[in-house]
Amino acid sequence: MDAMTGVLPAAAPRGAFRTPRRVLVTVAVAACVPYLALKVAWLSGSTVGIPAGSALRHEDPRLATVNALTVAMDAAVVVLAVALTRPWGRRLPGWVLVGPAWLASGLLGPVFVVWPVQTLLSAVFPGPALVARQVPWLDPWVFVLVYGGFLVQGVALGALFVLYVRERWGAPPAGRPVRPGVRRVAVAGVVAAVLPAVAHVAWACGATTGLAPGRIAGRGRDVAVLEAGYAVFVVAGAVGVVWTVFRCGDGRRAVPWVALAWCGTGTTAAWGGWLLLGGVGPGRRRRVGLWGDDTGVRGADGRRGAARRSPARGTRGAPGVTALLGRRARLRWVHLILGGALLMPYYLVAEVVLRTAGFRGGSPVVEPFVAFGVALPLVALTALFPVVRALEGAAARALCGADGITAGPARSWAARGRTCAWFVLHAGVGALVSGATLAVPPAVVVLSAMAVLPDRRRWPVPWTPAALSGRAWLAGCLALALLALLVVAAAGAGALLARLAQVLLGPTAAERLADAERRAVRLAARNRLARELHDSVGHALSAVTLQATAAGRLLERDPAYVRRALTAIEETTRRAVAELDDVLGVLREDGEAVAVAGPDLAALPELLERTAAAGLRLRSALPPGLDRLPPAVSREAYRIVQEGLSNALRHAGRVPVRLRITAGNGELGIEMTNPVPGNVPAGRRTGGGRGLRGVAERVAVLGGHLAAGADEDGWRLAVRLPVRGAAR
């Protein structure tokens, strides 16, 4: 039984689907291929057709979401074109094909009217079409390819739909009286269309009332033509609806008015919804024309859109209302509607499978839910592709406001399994919310009309309970309850998906553990580099400071010493710069630190010579065979000695220092002592104490022992490092 007429469709006549239909469906599908290929290329990261400097080159998750949505819409056009030409298309419920065809007519209508006018005006009156945009979004050939394809799609799809309607439902019926309730609804719709029609006419004539700052700045000839086109379609739809409802005569003479109502209402609904979708989008990087909002307009604080947003705007200050109708709740509602739109191609495939298999649910209510259940496994299979996780993650971050979501594609089967669960939830819950969003507003309008308009007892609404007849207050309360229930359900479902997005699209426990380990390794490497910098550069700066101070005091009395001091400063600074360059060179371009092999005890005599040249009175006792120690122990011991000498230079000055190194019994001993000057009180510290902490870290890594502190003879630093089993 047909879902729209209530009668069984006649069997398709032999040869009903002939060559003209095959040609039309081939043309329609071929016209979709360039647009689909271009969108898939953009989703894959390509910038073909997008000039340098275009706003579309920005890394914006909304762009990926919009591209994915438009790919799904054009894929639905392909499925619709095939369904209109195949026998199984006659067995589908009428609304499954009529609804998408109505929306497709609405989306393609302005392309047929507005784009040719804009192109003609650009050819006859050359000049800037847009004022605010200096760099075009796309190359000119892309506009020709896309809109030319839309024109071909519209012609082929319209012809297929007309042929389909004539074969399935026959010639237009003769005029019959329209019920009073239907007329009242039509009048209410026409009255509601007056405001948008007047607004678009005013904007086309140059008015700016109600426009965002970005749209005011971006006005030009193309914008005026676009607004005028919207107004024409709104008025055409209203006229077509009124004429069809009130002047319905012979069936054939009513066809032009029905077509006018069809195209006008479809364009108003489709483009109104599309502009509403853009109007509640994220506030960053809004673009003139693409979203119809404040692109590039900065407020006094320099932020985009700051002139549009104010602290007192909206529902701020009312947490309950904000949770239901705030900006984040509206974005999540859009995210749910996006999920419902993504489910539609799968739903059509499921309907085809069920009809081909001869399934009959026995009830017009049961069949859609069965197809819905069949479509969800197909959704899960699609989610196995790694790119789905990246696209869904971008949409969830931009619209749901979910944090902690993995940015890249799925790289493991566990991640793909969680992506399947998320995609099924997004599409399933989104389809339910989208269906309620489409069904509740008309029901609210009818119930409100029943509560306000006279003759409520004769309303021919089959689904209205008989108890509402004559009870205006009950109809009004039911309308408010339905609207409130829709808002609460959408807000609750959006909040639930935002919470589940962090679980299903976020990193797994193993990924979090691996990331923590990588961060720990990077932090340890950077701490090691910080110690290297402190020991090498700190020692050099201490020696340079002491030599420069002594040279300044002896500048007049001992010029020869000053020359030697300046030479030592030059050599020390040159060596420090070289060591600094070596340490900084281990930082790769990706920011990760790697190990660097520093000097070891074989270079200790040079260190002692430079320190003595800085003015430190040094006595040292070094055992033979230091060059045969394990590399790790030798390098760390060199840095420990260097830090001890730097501390003596920095805190004690020109005092005698005694260094003693011993090697034997499987360990290396380092002992350094120096007296504390009388003008430096014990325990005073002029630095930050990082040197001794670095020494302690080095000793702990090698499993040694450290003792440092002041006693009755002065300052003492003693270190014992194990030699056996040291890392080589």
From TrEMBL:
Gene Ontology cellular-component terms listed: membrane
Sequence ranges assigned to domain Signal transduction histidine kinase subgroup 3 dimerisation and phosphoacceptor in this UniProt record: 526-590
InterPro entries in alphabetical order: HATPase_C_sf (IPR036890), Sensor_HK_TwoCompSys (IPR050482), Sig_transdc_His_kin_sub3_dim/P (IPR011712)
PANTHER family from the UniProt entry: NITRATE/NITRITE SENSOR PROTEIN NARX-RELATED, NITRATE_NITRITE SENSOR PROTEIN NARQ
Tree of life domain: Bacteria
Ranges annotated as spanning the membrane: 23-43, 63-84, 96-121, 141-165, 185-203, 223-246, 333-349, 369-388, 420-453, 473-498
Any one Gene Ontology molecular-function term assigned to this protein's record: ATP binding
Annotated keywords: ATP-binding, Kinase, Membrane, Nucleotide-binding, Phosphoprotein, Transferase, Transmembrane, Transmembrane helix, Two-component regulatory system
Organism of origin: Streptantibioticus cattleyicolor (strain ATCC 35852 / DSM 46488 / JCM 4925 / NBRC 14057 / NRRL 8057) (Streptomyces cattleya)
Record's catalysed reaction(s): ATP + protein L-histidine = ADP + protein N-phospho-L-histidine
Enzyme class: transferase
One Pfam family named in its UniProt record: HisKA_3
Name of the protein described by the UniProt record: histidine kinase
Keyword set includes Protease: no
EC assignment: 2.7.13.3
Lineage: Bacteria, Bacillati, Actinomycetota, Actinomycetes, Kitasatosporales
